[in-house]
Write a structure and sequence with these properties.
The complex is a heterodimer.
Chain A (H helix, E strand, L loop, with lengths): L1 H14 L10 H25 L8 H21 L10 H25 L9 H23 L3 H9 L6 H20 L16 H33 L1
Helix pairs in contact in A: 2-3, 2-8, 3-4, 3-5, 4-5, 5-7, 7-8
Chain B lengths: L5 H26 L25 H6 L4 H12 L7 E7 L5 H4 L8 H6 L1 H9 L2 E7 L6 H10 L5 H6 L11 H7 L4 E6 L1 H5 L6 E5 L9 H7 L2 H6 L5 E6 L1 H9 L6 H26 L3 E6 L15 H4 E7 L14 E4 L3 H9 L21 H22 L28 H21 L8 H27 L3 H27 L9 H5 L4 H16 L3 H5 L1 H22 L11 H30 L12 H8 L1 H25 L5 H23 L9 H28 L27 H28 L5 H19 L7 H18 L23 H12 L1 H17 L4 H6 L2 H33 L6 H61 L1
Parallel strand pairs in B: 1-5, 1-6, 2-8, 3-4, 3-5
Antiparallel strand pairs in B: 2-7, 6-7
Helix pairs in contact in B: 1-20, 1-36, 17-18, 17-19, 18-19, 20-36, 22-24, 24-25, 24-32, 25-31, 25-32, 27-28, 27-30, 27-31, 28-29, 28-30, 29-30, 29-37, 30-31, 30-34, 30-37, 31-32, 31-34, 32-34, 32-36, 34-37, 36-37
């Protein structure tokens, strides 16, 4: 099992020609994740106190606040860890991150529709804002760091084989957000007649919860990753 | 590596299926006791002594009596003058008797005493008599209303068997009153309107849907009260107040709204009673007010179970005059809820309903003479004795002289013991003998209170023991049977799981090159499929998840397909640098085709999901079918014709994807086209099937049934014989149905290729014919869903046939099973019995036949699960050449095991797991509030789905084995040694 894994990593390292970003230290990862989480909290706080809206009462507006606050934080933070530093400037990484927003939103939108999100016009703004939020959580870090490298995207999202600490920081929160959203949909058919059972409120709660849990988990992975590299180097 | 032989496998599976079947039958008959209910209505014969030969002919002559004549006959027959003229039945939903009468001799709490001043004063003065009326479980409104008006405790299957109507068809008081020409008025819970449609002269139904509303729901009843009380054209007024139940659901017994609500009810009682007194002064019409509740409530305000708090309902009889004095202290007597029906029947002089198991409340007839009181007891005994005769066939008259007329001076009273039959007969005889003797001594009667009391005691002994036995028979669930049934289901489930695990564990020879891939323990799709089954199992414990089950299936199915999507992307290569290898290019092609077909499946699935909103709670939300129905019928018809044409075109083109084109294939294609065109022509000619019933359309449907049936069966039987054996160049081809790389050795094993081809043709024919049949039978709005399902299954076959699909077989079959279940709900089905398409069950049937209608109903309802099983034939064919090594060196058993193992066992196992778990849940939930409205209907669907699995697997197995035997044995033996040996083979087969 272990041997096979190492086999694969060597294989892929020979095939991929891109230069890997320098490994990220645990404290740096902690700062990145803490900033992401704080941004989320800040968005909720702004929506709650300044505009006095909540996810339950104004879902699309709150979701809009979340993704608009989180977008610059995520883009600016993750662009620092871009691949191919020689060819790609910081600004360019930010630019491709912003370009990735609509693409990721479209993918998430289609995914949500496929598993059953309502398609009527009254739900359209909610779904769009939710998809934009999902996009910020899932694809933006990847598009900042990886750019348009299909092999890397495929490795991280289709095969879930991140290598290196920065890829853990991309891969785990993205998967956490998706899995959280998936679980967040389960209370919807129950007949409790609570306002938060509406699309996309419970799903958004699930997304945020999954994202936060995965942020913590990714820290653990980064720690483990750093230690193993340390050992290897010795 | 231990491997299980084919024979052993078959034996194990058959044993498991047999055990499952037995266990299911035991459980069903234990859980839903079918007690023989007497049909029809009591008539004049109920005033005559029960005789040996059950009177069937007597009913006839009374059937067409006018109401007045009937009333006169009843009056004469019963020999009891009616004590009252009018009846007001006031139902206070969910009122526990404890609130009014107190508990165990204690008065009710002070707040409640003060809340109902008028009622309490009536009770204290003896104007009202109150009882704790013990209700039977389930303590839910509709069954309890039925119990109150019929005196019977019904079973669930009685409801299920007349699924097309909610109307109450058994003998009951409301129908009896209707028959004697009473004018009836109902205000309140609309359950009454559903139970007795058309019997009420005036009505205003309120719905108990808005549980939060405690005010409006009762005002809607009370606003009619003044008007109704001022009229005198009615004889029977029903008022059903739901507010108190709603208060309970909101805040429980001690809710702050409870006392005001009780006061409101007290005001209603006061109003009616004062009106009664006024009427009595004016025109001497005597009105009886009966205040009852259907059930009680727990501390939290719930109900449905059988705790004392829930079953403690009230029965208050409030007459215009004081009931026999000295009874005010015995206000807290306990009766059964079913006793209300015979008491009211006897008070108003109508026959007691046939299936009544209640006993007359003797206190209510105290104002009658001794003669009349005994007559009332006698009538009640006769009715119960008739019911006993129906339930105990051993209670015959040969062995016991039940209707002997004893006129001896000394009536013999025997000590009663022995079997049930003997006991009841003896008790009845005792009472009857004493009564007859008493009647004979008319002259000396005056001083025989002693004799009178002994007769009453004898009657009461018979009545109470008979009633007790009958009610136990109706409610008791034989726990031994249930446990036995569940145990059998669990055993069979474990056997099936074990068998599947064993054949999954065998790492087959053809997988060795792929060993690395195989050994890796769990892939995400496998984990998810098992997790999905776990989620299904968990969700079955929640009533709203059962109501909205379609969401779950669609969610799981589309997630599985998204995971497949992800897996297809894993091998997708965009990098042009790698294109130098031809194989990679090929791989890319297959994964592109996989991705596009998965996209097609997801897209169709989403449309299917939006077609019918389905379920219970959100049925009124807009969906495509409602939108189309609004757009107009002509569009629906056009769409139906278009989708029919699409099904034909796609079916034929899929058939011709098989590239070894032969004359046989052309012939089959032509026959498919023919039957398709027949269906199309039918749609053109009869655009509106459901609305107009005419003979011509009926005939054409019958012809279509015949054409589709005969074509399919003929092809299945004949095809293996006429498939050409020589296919030398087959290996050089790459195509859809066989893109698996075929090694050179396979040329030696031509029969397997012919087998594959014939199964492919048969599979195509099966699903295309099935879809054509469904287009014919389903509502015309469902034409597009049928087409989309057809597309989904074909696209799945395309996905799974490609070389690159590295899913395990059980994963693919489970995904297909899920697709089938999601499609089942997409056609508008749900877990309530209301969505069964009853109208479709009569298409093409000229004379009424329960069997044919039932068959059609099954075909319509289980269209998609069946489509799944039929597509399994195609699946077997698609997978046939992937195992060349086994097929080359294996014997018949090995080959058949490889072909049929997973396709049969996986659906069987999934169904077994779901059914077993649901059976256990049903057992645990037997006291749940929704047991009769949600859980039991779902169980009927589970049972029908099991039947569908049996039928489907039978079809798959028979088709594959038949083709195999013909190709591998019969044709060989024919070609080698001519006909003689062939017949020998076939005879040997037959003896085997």
């Amino acid at each position: 099992m272990d041997r096979r894994k190492s086999n694969e990593t060597t294989k892929s390292s020979t095939t991929s020609t891109v230069e890997l970003p320098p490994p990220i230290s645990a404290s740096e990862a902690l700062i990145v994740n803490a900033l992401c989480a704080l941004g989320l909290a800040f968005a909720f706080w702004i929506a709650n106190t300044v505009y006095s809206i909540e996810l339950v009462t104004h879902p699309s507006l709150t979701l809009f606040f979340i993704w608009i606050t989180e977008l610059p934080i995520v883009t600016l933070l993750y662009s620092r860890y871009r691949q191919n530093r020689k060819q790609c400037t910081y600004l360019r990484a930010v630019g491709r991150g912003v370009l990735g927003v609509p693409v990721g939103a479209l993918l998430n939108f289609l995914g949500a529709i496929a598993v059953g999100a309502p398609v009527t016009f009254q739900y359209l703004p909610k779904t769009v804002n939710w998809a934009l939020m999902m996009s910020v959580f899932t694809t933006i870090p990847a598009s900042c760091v990886l750019g348009s490298s299909w092999a890397d995207w495929r490795r991280i999202f289709a095969q879930t084989k991140p290598k290196g600490s920065i890829e853990y920081l991309i891969c785990l929160p993205a998967h956490g957000a998706v899995i959280g959203a998936w679980f967040g949909a389960w209370p919807m058919p129950l007949d409790w007649e609570r306002p938060w059972q509406e699309w996309p409120i419970s799903v958004s709660y699930g997304t945020v919860a999954g994202y936060l849990v995965a942020l913590v988990a990714s820290l653990g992975f980064v720690l483990a990753c750093g230690r193993s590299q340390h050992i290897k180097r010795e | 590596m231990s491997s299980i032989s084919c024979t052993k496998l078959t034996l194990f599976s058959l044993a498991a299926v047999a055990i499952q079947f037995i266990g299911l039958s035991i459980f069903v008959f234990g859980f839903f006791p079918v007690k023989p209910l007497l049909s029809g209505y009591s008539g004049c014969e109920s005033f005559r002594r029960p005789t040996c030969d059950n009177d069937g002919a007597a009913n006839q002559s009374y059937a067409s009596l006018s109401p007045d004549r009937r009333r006169f006959l009843y009056q004469e027959g019963s020999e009891i003058p009616p004590l009252y003229d009018r009846l007001v039945l006031m139902v206070i939903d969910g009122l526990p008797a404890e609130f009014v009468l107190g508990k165990k001799g204690q008065p009710p709490s002070k707040a409640f005493m003060e809340a109902m001043p008028y009622t309490q004063s009536l009770l204290a003065s003896g104007m009202a008599v109150g009882y704790h009326a013990i209700a039977a479980a389930p303590t839910v409104t509709m069954p309890r209303l039925k119990a109150m008006v019929s005196g019977a405790i019904g079973g669930f299957l009685d409801v299920a068997f007349n699924f097309n109507t909610l109307a109450y068809l058994d003998d009951n008081l409301v129908a009896q009153f209707f028959k004697i020409g009473w004018k009836m008025v109902m205000h309140g819970d609309d359950t009454w309107l559903r139970l007795f449609p058309g019997l009420f002269a005036r009505h205003d139904g309120v719905s108990s849907f808005f549980v939060k509303d405690t005010v409006q729901v009762d005002q809607n009843v009370s606003r009619h009260l003044g008007d109704e009380l001022s009229r005198d054209d009615w004889n029977f007024l029903i008022l059903h107040y739901l507010g108190l139940d709603h208060v309970g659901h909101i805040g429980g017994r001690n809710c702050v709204l409870m006392a005001p609500k009780l006061f409101e009810m007290d005001e209603v009682v006061k109003m009616i009673h004062i009106n009664t007194l006024r009427n009595l002064e004016n025109d001497q019409r005597k009105t009886l007010l009966v205040v009852v509740s259907d059930h009680g409530m727990t501390e939290n305000g719930n109900h449905g179970g059988s705790s004392y708090e829930e079953t403690d309902s009230i029965a208050l009889f409030i007459g215009p005059k004081t009931h026999a004095s000295g009874h005010s202290s015995s206000n807290h007597d306990t009766i059964f809820q079913v006793d209300i029906a015979p008491t009211i029947a006897l008070l108003f002089g109508v026959p007691i309903p046939k299936n009544n198991i209640g006993v007359l409340i003797s206190q209510m007839v105290d104002s009658l003479t001794d003669d009349q009181k005994l007559r009332a007891l006698q009538l009640n005994s006769w009715q119960l004795f008739r019911l006993l005769q129906a339930q105990l066939p051993g209670l015959s008259c040969r062995n016991f002289p039940c209707d002997a007329f004893v006129t001896n001076s000394g009536p013999t009273i025997s000590e009663c013991k022995g079997s049930k039959e003997k006991l009841f007969c003896c008790l009845y005889l005792n009472a009857a003998t004493l009564h007859d003797a008493w009647k004979a001594k008319v002259v000396t009667r005056s001083n025989s209170t002693e004799g009178y009391n002994s007769i009453v005691a004898a009657y009461n002994e018979f009545l109470s023991s008979a009633s007790e036995w009958l009610s136990h028979k109706a409610t008791d669930k034989p726990i031994n049977l249930l446990v036995l049934g569940v145990a059998a289901l669990v055993v069979s489930c474990l056997i099936l799981l074990g068998v599947v695990f064993v054949i999954h564990k065998e790492v087959p020879a053809w997988e060795t090159q792929d060993h690395d891939n195989y050994v890796k323990p769990w892939k995400i799709d496998e984990v998810f499929i098992l997790f999905g089954i776990l989620i299904l199992v968990i969700s079955m414990g929640s009533s709203s998840m059962i109501e909205e089950e379609h969401y779950i299936w669609h969610f799981l199915t589309s997630t599985i397909n998204l995971l497949f999507f992800r897996k297809a992307i894993q091998s997708l290569e965009f990098n042009k640098a790698h294109d130098f290898l031809n194989s990679i290019k090929e791989q890319k092609n297959t994964s592109v085709s996989q991705i596009s077909s998965l996209f097609l499946i997801l897209f169709s699935g989403r449309i299917l999901r939006g077609w019918h909103q389905g379920g219970v709670n959100w049925t009124n939300l807009p969906d495509i079918s409602k939108w189309l129905e609004q757009a107009g019928n002509q569009y629906i018809n056009l769409i139906q014709i278009a989708s029919c044409a699409m099904v034909i075109i796609m079916g034929i083109s899929v058939l011709f994807l098989m590239q070894s084109k032969t004359k046989v294939l052309t012939g089959i294609g032509l026959s498919l086209l023919m039957s398709g065109l027949f269906v199309l022509q039918h749609f053109m000619k009869h655009p509106d099937m459901s609305a107009s019933y005419n003979k011509d359309a009926n005939l054409s449907v019958q012809i279509l049934f015949a054409v589709l049936g005969i074509t399919t069966i003929a092809v299945v039987l004949v095809l293996p014989w006429i498939m050409p054996m020589q296919t030398p160049d087959i290996c050089s081809r790459k195509n859809f149905y066989m893109s698996a790389s075929v090694p050179v050795e396979i040329q030696n094993s031509t029969p397997i290729l012919v087998l594959k081809d014939s199964l492919y043709i048969v599979g195509c024919l099966y699903i295309t014919s099935w879809c054509l049949l469904q287009l014919l039978l389903q509502q015309s709005i469902n034409a597009v869903p049928v087409l989309l399902l057809f597309i989904q299954f074909l696209a799945s076959m395309l996905t799974f046939s490609s070389n690159g699909s590295c899913h395990k077989q059980w994963v693919e079959i489970t995904a297909l099973y899920n697709l089938g279940m999601a499609g089942h709900f997409a056609l508008g089905n749900s877990n309530t019995l209301a969505t069964i398409d009853v109208a479709g069950a009569f298409i093409g049937i000229s004379s009424h036949s329960t069997f044919l209608s039932g068959l059609l109903m099954f075909i319509i309802t289980y269209a998609t699960p069946m489509l799944f099983f039929l597509s399994m034939v195609l699946y077997v064919s698609v997978k046939a050449t992937i195992y060349p090594l086994v097929i080359k060196k294996g014997n018949s058993g090995e080959i058949l095991k490889t072909l049929l193992g997973f396709p049969c066992l996986v659906p069987l196992t999934i169904n077994s797991v779901l059914m077993t778990v649901y059976t256990i849940i049903l057992l645990l939930m037997r006291n749940h509030l929704f047991i009769w409205s949600v859980f039991s209907p779902k169980y009927l669907y589970v049972c029908a789905a099991t039947a569908c699995v049996y039928v489907g697997i039978c079809i798959v197995v028979v088709t594959v084995i038949h083709t195999y035997i013909v190709l591998f044995w019969l044709r060989k033996s024919f070609s080698i040694s001519g006909k003689a040996k062939g017949t020998w083979w076939s005879s040997k087969l037959r003896t085997n």
